[in-house]
Please model this.
Amino acid sequence: SEYADISLKDIDQVSKSSFPLCMRHLFEKLREDHHLKHGGRMQLGLFLKGVGLKLDDALAFWREEFTKKVGSERFDKEYAYAIRHNYGKEGKRTDYTPYACSKIITSAPGVGDHHGCPYRHFSEDNLKAALNRMGLSSRGMEDVMDKVRNKHYQLACTLTFEAVYGTSCDTGINHPNQYFEESQKILKS
Ligand code: SF4
Model:
């Protein structure tokens, strides 16, 4: 990525300062449960690739969490391949691109899944609690919830961005990696 290739030692701090809500949620769930189902591994894994996490760091990152629950051998067998695959190192060697908002919003997370777009897929109470943790005022939250009720999920995310960073985002948010880049631009200027 243009602004920051994140490394493992910074990843927790950067997840709080620059990840959009969809990725913060996946990241927190992974740290909490030491596991994510397939949809979550894909959504977060490709995002992290997009922010510049190198393959070796990605393997170390997923291994650290997953091996708290499954053995190292099982991790290598069942999960490491898919991570290398996302980086174009296995199978057809396609270099897979991170998902855009449109794809995430139209995904259909099931029970136990944590992927998807929180503005689209969270209950109102859970979304409000998450926005509260991001530091939104009740006024800011009402503006966001208004967009959500009108099914303008990307606008809701854009308003969140503007509230968190205290600046306008005229292009609007259409990709989690764009959210990340724009936030890094602000934080590093
Ligand atoms: Fe993520 Fe896009 Fe939803 Fe924002 S609008 S939370 S970046 S999917």
Observations:
- The two ends are 16 Å apart (CA to CA).
- The pocket of iron/sulfur cluster is lined by residues 20-22, 101, 104-105, 117-119, 153-154, 157, 173, 176, 179 (CB under 6 Å).
- Residues 72-86 form the longest helix (15 residues).
